[in-house]
Specification:
This protein has three helices and five strands; from the N terminus they run H-H-E-E-E-E-E-H. It has a five-stranded antiparallel beta sheet, with helices on one face. Strand 3 and strand 4 form a beta hairpin. Helix 1 runs antiparallel to helix 2.
Length: about 100
């Protein structure tokens, strides 16, 4: 499942550039390339629930949570922390948030 992506000025401009480039060079463009471009520019927000627990969301839904355990940050995918699945373990909070932002679903 692909989460809805907020169409911001920067994301639509980036996607438009790719479409224009494909048209100018007379090449075909896949939907995956366009979706990846929009996903890269998707904005997320973070909210500290506790000192060691952060909620990551976009404008439409909660993407997941980042939990700190010792020196690691664990990215958890899902809108309910009790049922969220681990995406990975990262060295920084920013990398864990980025993993949730880029995750396809």
């Amino acid at each position: 499942m692909i989460e809805p992506i907020e169409a911001t000025h920067t994301s639509t401009t980036g996607a438009r550039r790719i479409v224009e480039l494909a048209a100018a060079t007379n090449t075909t463009m896949s939907d995956e390339l366009l979706l990846d471009t929009l996903r890269r520019n998707a904005k997320v927000s973070t909210r500290h629930i506790r000192e060691d627990f952060i909620e990551v969301a976009n404008a439409a839904s909660v993407l997941g949570y980042v939990c700190r355990q010792r020196a690691e940050y664990i990215a958890l995918r899902g809108d309910d922390p009790a049922w969220a699945q681990e995406v990975g373990r990262y060295g920084t909070e920013a990398l864990a948030v980025e993993a949730l932002r880029m995750r396809r679903g």
